[in-house]
Every structure is written in structure tokens, then in C-alpha cells.
Batch of 4 targets.
Target 1
Amino acid sequence: MKRLCKSGLIAMIVAATPVLAYAQSADLVLCDRLAADPSDPDKPADAKGVPEIAASDIATAIKYCAVAAKSSRRAMYQLGRAYAANRQVTEAVSAWRKAADKGSTSAMVELGVLYGTGNGIARDEVQARKLFERAAEAGNPRGVSNLAAIGGGGAPADPARQRELLGRAAETNAEAQYQLGMLLAEGSGGQKDDAAARALFEKAAAQNHPGALERMGAFASEGRGGPKDSSAAKAYYERAAALGDEDAKKALESLRCPYKIKDKSGKLVTTLCF
């Protein structure tokens, strides 16, 4: 593929996104396109994001995110992602520190992970916990889940506190909606509420969250928290499976092969499929 000069790239971006071009720099638009984190609360709604930065895009992402980072904290966070993808841990840590200092909760989480694992930085669980707490207090879903995993001060995770923290982010964030829905569905940290859980899963599913789509399939199949609807359940499972959810794939297989033949000992012999 032929390389395009910077002016050519900018022209393409302006042509493709005329409204955004006036609102922010072309460098930031391209940085978002190549390196935005789908779970970052700072990510603009019209930026899809990428779970992992493609190897072929790393150099370009570093180039344009470095320029955009001079005036944007999310670009600084995304620059850290690009450096991390390029295995430049020292540079990634530096970028994430700067982004965290400017209030990026996603950068706080990434730094917390590095402190918690000792990957490229001296292991420090106390510092990791502090970073997760800051992110969680600001409503970052990953901050909440990581804080729960590491525990507070060595104490067991507090599901009630998780509910409280997730509730702040669940108004707009799909991951928070999904995680809070799971707590409500399991009755963890408070009263069990299938109807409220289903409503949260439905919101997250509308944003194509794989886990929420799978849960909506299960709830629709069982009639939990709302009407039973086999056709809707299958549709939810299919959408989740297309996004790679393994539980949804298994559920679809069970729908296709619902009858199980067992021997006298109860061992599965075969299944009957449609």
C-alpha cells in the first residue's frame, strides 16, 4: 500500500468527518481512529476504538498521538497505548503518568495494572490500589473491577461498595452497566433484582457489549426479569457469538442440539440436532 503524506491523510480525515474537523485537530481525529480504547470514558461516542492497536498502525499512532497529546489527555493516554503496543514500556509509563495527572481514569487503571503486576515498573500493590481507587471513585468500570479483584487494604472485596461505584458510571458506560447488572442478577452486595439487571443488560446490549448480549439471550430464554422470548434469545446469542462470546456460542449449540441421549450411568452418548 502506498504511503500518504501528512497533508493527504489530513485531507482524507476532513473529507470523512467534516463536523469533527472543526471541533478538534486532524491529529487527534487520527489518533482516536488508530488508538482509542473502547472502554475509555474519555472516548468520544463517534470513535469506535480498538481493543488492540494493529501492528501496522503503531508507528502512525505514535506520530499523531504525540502531537495531539500536547493538548488532549485522552490522546496522551492513547499515546501510552501505542508505546505499550510497541513494547516501549518506559515511554508508556511516562505518557500514562502525564495523562493520569490530567485526570485520565483509564491511564490510572493502566498504571495500576503495571504496579500490580510489576511489569516494567517496581511492583507496589499499595500504589496499584490507590490508582484503582482513584479511577473507581471517578466511575471507571475497570477501576471498580480491578479494585474488587485486589481488595481494599488486603480485605475482601466489598460488593456493596462495587454497586455504589458502578452506579455512577452505569448511566452511560456499557461495561459498568454489564458489571452492575451481574451484581444485581446474582444478588451480590444487596438485594437480587432480575428486572433491574435485565434493564441494564439491555442498555449495554444496545451498545454491542458481548457479555450483555449473552446475558440478554439467557434472560430472554429463561424469562428472567421480563417476558420469555425464544426468538429474541436466539438473536441475542447470535449477536454475542459474532462478537466472539464463547458462552453465547455454546448456548447456540445447545439450541441447535437440544436433545441429549444418555446411557444408564447418565453418561452423554450423543445429541440430536436440528
Target 2
Amino acid sequence: MINRKKLNLGAAQFASEIGDVDANLDRHLHWIAKGREAGLDMLVMPELSLTGHYGPEKLLTAAMSRKDPRLRQLAEAAGPMALTVGFIEEGPAAQFYNSAAILQNGKLVHLHRKVNLPNYGKLEEGKHYASGRFVETWAMDEHWRAGLLICADVWNPALTHLAFLHGSTMLICPVSSGIEAVGVEFDNPGGWVLTCRFYAMIYGAPVIMVNRTGTERDLSFWGGSCIVDPFGRILAQAGQGEELVSAVLDYDEIRRARQLLPTVRDSNIALVHNETSRLLGTLGVPDFVRD
């Protein structure tokens, strides 16, 4: 295992063909080649990068097993570069998930199934996907441990907190965020930048958000992928078009940020556990029943 204190990380934002995995495969191979030419240690692609946002329109042909040869092809093309891709996963018993995988050296080394499936505005993910049931992390080496959450997962602060309690030293967020997704009064571009900077500063860890671009059906994807350092400063940010942005992350900056603001150290997980257990017996129960 290589122990690198500095990590050259990239985000590739692009448009995808709806539900056409084979067509999107070529796009992935293009950006993988660009990432390897740039000497990246890790390259992150958008949520559902292999199917597009509206991939569920072709769910039964777009869904893939974790052992699909096309994922193996991408893993082999990535070589030693860790690659994060998004796809519709068909799990056991014909259960379908919005999943993101980390691929490296010809193998799938980590998988996250989206937990927080949005059903509001123009988003209807609960109609198509089963919910993931775990928050896990992936150790790239001794210093870099990735917490991988997908889009709306990050809007549930409890999931983000869990990722960092599991030891994450960076948070990877592939997203599929359209301007019109929630409503015209909700500033998606501004909200994502604010959220990424907030989590980075609170937890003293880099945050990598990668969005798609272009138009699918009734949604306009604004790009804006960004890499934020452990102090909440934006190191790199993409525009609205297809683009690869990158930044060098320094583990010593994480050490410095966490020494100054020890959120993880002071999280008091026992208190959170006890209070959550207490709430389970009372939350949503009418007072007349509780009494």
C-alpha cells in the first residue's frame, strides 16, 4: 500500500446519454485517459455517470451487476488511479440501487448504495430504487480514507457525520443536481457550494463534489464541480461545460485543521447513541399514547 501525504485528485463533469451504458462507456474511457495523463491519484465522476439522471426510464436494460464486464473494463483502464463511477446496480433478488463504485487496478474496491432517496420537486428516486443500508469508508492508504456519499445523502447531516466517525479524511460526493430539481426559489448551485465548504470546515477534511452538465428532459445541470480544502477554501471549481478540474490535497493540512477544530474528537458518539435510542421510542408518538 502506497502512503502518500499529497493526493492529486480530479473531478470530471460531463453529460451522459440517458440509459445507454455502452455509449457512456466511451465517455468514461476518454476522461480516464485524461486523468491518467494528468497523473491523478483519484478521479471522480458524477452520480449515475454511466446511465444519466433519467437512466431509470430504461431501468431493465441500464441496470448492471457489480460483476459486469464493463465495470471491469473501466477498472482495468483506470490502473492504479482510483476511479469513482455512478451506475444503476442490480443486486440480489432484482433489487435496484443508485450506486457509486470505486474502481482500481482492474477491481471494484468499494461500493456505496444511496441511502437518502429524494422524493420531492422533480425527483422521484424512491419510485425506482431500493435504499442503501450502510455508510462505509474506503482506505486508499494509511492517510487517505474516503467517505463516499451520493448527492442527497449529504443533505442528511447524520449520514455525513457517520462517514467522518468511520474515519474519513475526505468526503466524495458525486451528484446529479439540476437547477429546477427542487424549485425556482431553491438555489442549488449556491446551496452545494455552501454545503461543501461547511462540511470541509466543520470536519477538517477535503470535500469533492462532482456534478453532471448539459440538459436531460426537464432538468438543466449546472456543473460547478468543486474541490474544497480542510479549511473550507475552494481549491478548484468547474464552469458549466464538460471539464476536468484537479487539485493537490495535503494530509498535513488535515492534521492542522483538526488540531485547531477537533470536531471528530469531540463528537461524543455515546451521547448521540443514547439520545437516538431514547428518541426511537417517542418520536412521532402522540402525547396521549406516550402518557
Target 3
Amino acid sequence: MDFLDLKNFLDSKVEQYNRPDFIENDPICIPHLFQKKQDVEIAGFFAAILAWGQRKTIINKCKELLNRMDYAPYDFVLNHQDQDLKKLLNFKHRTFNDTDLLYFISFFKNHYTHFISLEQAFIPPDLSNTEQPIVNYPTDLSSTSHELSVTNFSVEDSLNHFRQYFFSIEDFPHRTKKHISSPKQKSTCKRLNMFLRWMVRNDGMGVDFGIWNVIKPKHLICPCDVHVDRVGRLLGLISRKQTDWLTAVELSANLRQLDDNDPVKYDFALFGLGVEKIL
């Protein structure tokens, strides 16, 4: 398949899969339960971090978690009392347990006490063109955002910074570190890249949210799960033998040749082709 044929084929698959009916059976349905920006960020983050295993199970576990927070995650993380945390005990999904959950809540409370948006957590301080670039962001999805920018931005630097920042609270549980990956660990960072896709892409199709405006779609790295990896190799978009951070970078670089401004839109095509076993 030559370049033009590949682009036309994948563009048609993006159009097929990048639709609201994709939402219902995907973990992205969890943040779609909310309108307030911070609720979307928190619910989306948990949905992404818990996204391994069968999608139906992931969705059910996320709803269980939200129910324990009275379906008000932002209010819960900011205003909970110690006795409220008892409702989180015994939560478990795969290797994620209540010890991890309680630390996540501590992180969110600490972050949102200082910043209005979670986007700030992904921007290394030395790249920001203001000291607090997120403080004036709107709190709901209907408001318009101030246009801000960073220079020399890379998702690799962003994810490495985020992991360091996430575990900057004293006495964090060491076991929780396995749930937040980074390029320094040579991980594909599939879950975090998926979360960034949800928050950053804004194509008007109603699937991704596009509620962040410092990180741009052109910066994103494609989430590289088993379906995307397999189909990417079949289509010649991945040549690297192992699957690690550099694999995700290689895939994204090749997708940028198809669309430099929005390469990660092809995540829909590759994932859909893999799940439906078309390739």
C-alpha cells in the first residue's frame, strides 16, 4: 500500500470510528458523565489509569469508584473529611488497590488546592511562559479558554515531569509508582497518552474533549496498546522489534506524515481495525 492509499484508508477508518457511538463501550464514557472541567479531568484520569482488562469491566469498576465519591470527584478530592475516605477502602481493580487510591486522592487534593486545571501538572515549570499558566482557566466545558503557549514542548519531557510531580508528596507509597509510567522507564505510557488524547484533541466530533489549550494535538504521542501495535506493524508504521517508548515515538512520527497537526486521530483507526480484527 503506497502513502496516498494508506492515508486514504486510515482517514476513512478515522471517519468511521471517531463518532459519538464509539463512547458507550469505551472507558472514555466515564469522563463523559460530567460537565465540570475538573470532574472530567479526575474521572478521565482514573478511567485511563484503570484501563487494562476487558472494557466492560473497566467501565464498571470506574463507576463503582465514582459512586464511592458520590459522583462528584472534584468536590470529593477537595472537601473530603477523614471519615469520607472510609468509603474508598477495599476498592480494587487488578493490582490497583485502596492504598493506591488514597494516594491518588491526596495528589489531587494537593494539586487542585494550587491550580484550577490538571493540565498544569503535565507542563514542566521551565517551559511555562507564565508562573501559573492555568490559574485563569474556566471550570466548565462551555467556557472559552485563554490562549496560552509553551515553547520547546515535548510529551516525553511532560510525562517524565508528571511522574516526578505526582510522587512529590512526602511518604508516598512505593507500590503506587507502578501505576504511573514514564518514558524514562522505557514504557509506552499507553494510559497517560490516552488520557492526554482525551483532554487535548478537539475536532468537534464529540469523542475527545479538547478542554486543554497549552498542549496541542500536534504534540501528542499515539497510545500504543496491543491492537494499535499489531495493526501498526501490519501497515508498516512500526519497524522496531520491541514495544516500548521509542516504538510509540516511531509510530507517532509516521502518523505525523499523514497529518502533522493531528497525528493521534489515527488512534481511532488503528484501534478499531484491531478490535474488529479487520487486519
Target 4
Amino acid sequence: MKELLLTIYRYRSFIIGSVKREFQIRYKMSMLGATWLILQPLSMILVYTLIFSQVMKTRLPGTGGTYSYSVYLCVGIITWGLFSEILSRSQNIFIESAGLLKKLNFPRICLPIIVALSAIINFAIIFSLFLIFLIITGNFYFISVVEMIPLLIIEVMFALGLGVALGVINVFFRDVGQFVAVLLQFWFWFTPIVYVLSTLPVWAQDILKYNPMTVLVDNYQRVVIHQQSIEWGSVWPVMVAAVLLCILGMHLFRKHAADMVDEL
């Protein structure tokens, strides 16, 4: 871990420069620029709010405000967006950067770090707008934002560890990329983002509680909507899984780093 942190620090200029360049390339030829970053989650929130708000607002336990379901939906979609972006991009990052890997000599582990930083910046922009919405609607609580930090760290670790592991495998078995795209679609609907977990049958609730993102999203909702503390009894298994996935990802990466360049 110390060696990894030192490597990231030594190549911090390369990492920061790559993140800046990525944003420039992504929005250079776009008239609306970074506005597209906001429009996609905003459109999802508007569609789901219009369709489900009347159905779900009465089923949110302990809330009855006009914007309660909108807040509930925003919490889930914004945090899910961070997870899905890190996972989907990490599992494809080595293939996307094949030319860079062959031409330049740099620590390959910088690539997933660049992906994670880009996703975190995207999340920070969208979340800042969400905070403004919370302030306007009278739902902002500073302590809730602070309590979200450990959940975000666990989520980033979980997504990055899984993404790197799948990214290494994807270099040798390209079906992995297609599988992840399908998996994320199912995973989204198996996470209580649009619907409320308590509205499901007990047997379905018990099954979904094995979904790590169900645990994290549920705790985000507890913290932001109900101003309750994190339920660490449910979170710690996800935290352990996140650490183990990071270890697995690093192991696969170090073992196959040279082979990946040849395969690409």
C-alpha cells in the first residue's frame, strides 16, 4: 500500500494532467460542454419523478414532504452514477488505453486512479447541484453530508476493486465488457433507487440485502433523508468486500501487467 501511494504521488502530475485532458476531449466539440454531465442524471430524475412520485411518496416511511420522493430518487441515482461510472470505465480502461500502454512507460495503476478521480469530479459537480436543491427545499443538514463521506469511500473502493479485476480479465476475455454492461442494467433495478425496499415482500427484501449497493444506497437514504446514523452492522461486510476486491484487483493487475501489454 505504501509503495502504491508513493507511486501515485510521484506521478501526480501525469494523473492530474490526464484527468484535465479527459475532460477537455470529452466536451471540446460539444456546444453545451459539461452541461451534458448534468442533463443525463437530471433527465432520469425528472422521468422517474413524474412517473412514480404519486405512487411512492406515500410509501416513504417517516417523510411526507412535497419533495420527499425527489430527494429519495436523487440520493439513489447520483450515488449509483458514481458506482456505475467507475465500474464500467475501469473494466475497459486497459483496452481503451492500449496505444498509451505501448508507447509510454508509466505505472499502469495510474489508469484506474485517473478513472476514479474523473468519476469523483463528475459526482462532485452533480452533488453540488443536489445540495443547492436540498437547501432551497429546506432538506439540507450538514451532518448528513459529513456522514456520507465514509460511505463514498467504501463505494469507490468497491467499484474500483471490482472494476480493476474485471478490467484485467477483459483484456484476455472480451466478453467481460459486454457482460458488465448487461449486469449494470440488472444491478440498477435490483437496488432500491426508484422503488422503496420496504414495499417489497419480505423474501425479496431478504434477497436484496445481499446486494452491496442495496446496503450502501439504503444507508445514503438513512443519512440524507431521515438524518439517521450509518447502520454499520450492515455496512461492515460491504467494507470488507471492498478491501478484498481491491486486493484481488491489485493481485491480478501485478500478475498479468506484462501479459496485458502483449495481448493488447
